[in-house]
Amino acid sequence: MTTARETVLGRVRDALALAPAADGAPVPRAYRTGRTLPDEERLALFTDRLADYKARVHPCTADRTAEVIAEVLREQGAERIGVPAGLDPRWLSAHDGEVRQDSADIPAPSLDALDGVVTASAVSCAETGTIFLDGSPDQGRRALSLVPDLHVCVVDLSTVEVGVPEAVARLVPERPTTLISGPSATSDIELERVEGVHGPRTLAVVIRTDA
Amino acid sequence: MSATFLGMPATPPRSPYGTGNLRGDRKFPAAAHDELRNEQLRGNLGRATRTIRAKRLTVTGELPDWEELRDAGSAIKTDTMNRLPELLEELERNVTARGGTVHWARDGVEANEIVARLIKETGSEEVIKVKSMATQEIGLNEHLESLGITAHETDLAELIVQLAHDKPSHILVPAIHRNRDEIRQIFLKEIPGVDPSLDNVPAHLAAAARVYLREKFMTTEVAVSGANFGIAETGTLSVVESEGNGRMCLTLPDTLITVMGIEKVLPRYQDLEVFLQLLPRSSTGERMNPYTSMWTGVTPGDGPQTFHLVLLDNGRTAALADRIGREALNCIRCSACLNVCPVYERTGGHAYGSTYPGPIGAVLTPQLAGMDAARDDPNSSLPYASSLCGACFDACPVKIDIPSLLVELRHQHTERSGTTAEKLAMKAAAGVMSRPKVYTAAQKASGLGRVLAGRDGKFSHLPPPFSGWSESRDTPAPPEQTFRAWLASAEGAATMRAAADEHTRGGQPTRDQQQEEDK
């Protein structure tokens, strides 16, 4: 008896035999790649696009990271904060609330008890206002940046690329990767945009301009 | 290669007749006729499609290399179809190497059985679902329900559709046909324990869905999703969404089952750089959708620890076997063609009777599920559900020539139809036109038609065999005089003389015209 696998692959081969390809022209890749922009312009573009997505943007210098994060958390009234195990502990040093370090054996539903989460990020794309998380130790498992209602994400300007091709080129394919462009949103009811459905309703981005 | 391969391949079978959601129960003109009477639907659709169209034009206009991206997208998909066997095997190899399990399904029936078996093996009696065209196409929810497994749709629009016991009417915004008052009523009636004072503000409705679904996300152990892309080179799968319900489903449960049409494979990870630009901008008119998830097999300590990928044929190889029709498999389900289509804008998605409505649906549906002339198949009306205006071709991010595909399908339909009244009529017309005397006589006779046409000079109803034509169009009455009769008359002769005069004067005004101007 032939397996479904053999049958489907056989059908695909039959189909290609019945209707051979017209030509094998190479894929034209004349779109823009390898773009660069000076720091200031990349920061301005990224900030503009993040704001357009209703994300809150907080540029800062590396030495003020802890202060700015604490300010953001205070502003949002967030006390209990989750952090991935590999996050620089100094970043939460100015926060006077509770800090809980995440680990794989904590059941994901209990993350619901957190007021917010602070993570780092892997890569960003200025042109689309997109932040890429790749599950590295300073970004944690995917559930951590998803379940709590506030996500404070730290981005180093040196990791911000101009466009999508430049950003994708920096990714590691095997890592579980999440692309975030603004907070959760829906337009399903009469196309009226509503921020915050299931993911975090607030996204605050702390951009370290000299790191 | 199948065991019976003898050097001359047979056409691969289509999706089985009557299973899943690739066929309505009546033809497009009849369904559209009813939908057109729904003022609410037309109002909602008109506003929604206008809004998305404008947003799409703004964000695609921002990219100076938009056309180059379309060219690349189109070429990558063409290359994918040409190398489909090796790419599918490569995808399978890489998913398996990263701890996933790959299943193959010849059709929707088999895919439903595989998914149901996998769910049962987990011991769970409910699943959470990410919005997915493939599972809608095969009617997975209905199949699971028949086995006592509850499938919860978690996309807000899909949830609205599911709670209303309705069908999606748009690829991207399935509840586009519902307004806020209707949605409020649906929630009040169907969500257990919902606040009875819930009003119709979209933010409040979304919040009610959030509360309802959060409990499901936290407690359900199995999720079912579709996939926007599957990367052969790395085994990476991807889901593009907005609300975070996708992230919830793809991250929180222990088991993830993904159903993917075999045409969704992409050769290289790098190809994402093209499609992550084309898809969001074409679909919601955003520079990027809020969330995209990408995963490769399983990752210890992060997300589902059991991952199944079900690769679905269900008529796709039949589409692939047609050199012209193959192009429709390039579709990335962005819905841009729906939003620019004058026919879709007026009839909405339900009139198409398929999971895939609009221009691409009119092409894809008959290709996947056939248009069986012998059974008077509703799908045979879909290639005619178009004005062939070409707006869909202009909007398509992967440059699918939808109008030409529709014309090709019309041709195929006519070829397969055998002897019909239409064919007989055309044959008779050819006979008459090839004999001048008979033709003149026929033209004189047709002038009599004016008497029957009534005062507005139009026929609303023609007798059989032309009644099919007149169902959806008015037919103008024949003119009082045929062209030949006019040419032979004094008026015709004078007009021709004047035209000849003008020609010999090299475009100089005629004496009559000159006198007019001198006055």
UniProtKB/TrEMBL annotation, chain A:
<dbReference type="InterPro" id="IPR037171">
    <property type="entry name" value="NagB/RpiA_transferase-like"/>
</dbReference>
<dbReference type="InterPro" id="IPR003741">
    <property type="entry name" value="LUD_dom"/>
</dbReference>
<feature type="domain" description="LUD">
    <location>
        <begin position="46"/>
        <end position="207"/>
    </location>
</feature>
<dbReference type="Pfam" id="PF02589">
    <property type="entry name" value="LUD_dom"/>
</dbReference>
<protein>
    <submittedName>
        <fullName>LUD domain-containing protein</fullName>
    </submittedName>
</protein>
<dbReference type="InterPro" id="IPR024185">
    <property type="entry name" value="FTHF_cligase-like_sf"/>
</dbReference>
TrEMBL record, chain B:
<feature type="domain" description="LUD">
    <location>
        <begin position="88"/>
        <end position="298"/>
    </location>
</feature>
<dbReference type="InterPro" id="IPR004452">
    <property type="entry name" value="LutB/LldF"/>
</dbReference>
<dbReference type="InterPro" id="IPR003741">
    <property type="entry name" value="LUD_dom"/>
</dbReference>
<dbReference type="InterPro" id="IPR009051">
    <property type="entry name" value="Helical_ferredxn"/>
</dbReference>
<keyword id="KW-0004">4Fe-4S</keyword>
<dbReference type="Pfam" id="PF11870">
    <property type="entry name" value="LutB_C"/>
</dbReference>
<dbReference type="Pfam" id="PF13183">
    <property type="entry name" value="Fer4_8"/>
</dbReference>
<keyword id="KW-0813">Transport</keyword>
<feature type="domain" description="Lactate utilization protein B C-terminal">
    <location>
        <begin position="417"/>
        <end position="488"/>
    </location>
</feature>
<keyword id="KW-0411">Iron-sulfur</keyword>
<feature type="region of interest" description="Disordered">
    <location>
        <begin position="1"/>
        <end position="26"/>
    </location>
</feature>
<keyword id="KW-0479">Metal-binding</keyword>
<feature type="domain" description="4Fe-4S ferredoxin-type">
    <location>
        <begin position="328"/>
        <end position="400"/>
    </location>
</feature>
<keyword id="KW-0677">Repeat</keyword>
<keyword id="KW-0408">Iron</keyword>
<protein>
    <submittedName>
        <fullName>LutB/LldF family L-lactate oxidation iron-sulfur protein</fullName>
    </submittedName>
</protein>
<feature type="region of interest" description="Disordered">
    <location>
        <begin position="492"/>
        <end position="519"/>
    </location>
</feature>
<dbReference type="InterPro" id="IPR024569">
    <property type="entry name" value="LutB_C"/>
</dbReference>
<dbReference type="InterPro" id="IPR037171">
    <property type="entry name" value="NagB/RpiA_transferase-like"/>
</dbReference>
<dbReference type="InterPro" id="IPR017900">
    <property type="entry name" value="4Fe4S_Fe_S_CS"/>
</dbReference>
<dbReference type="Pfam" id="PF02589">
    <property type="entry name" value="LUD_dom"/>
</dbReference>
<keyword id="KW-0249">Electron transport</keyword>
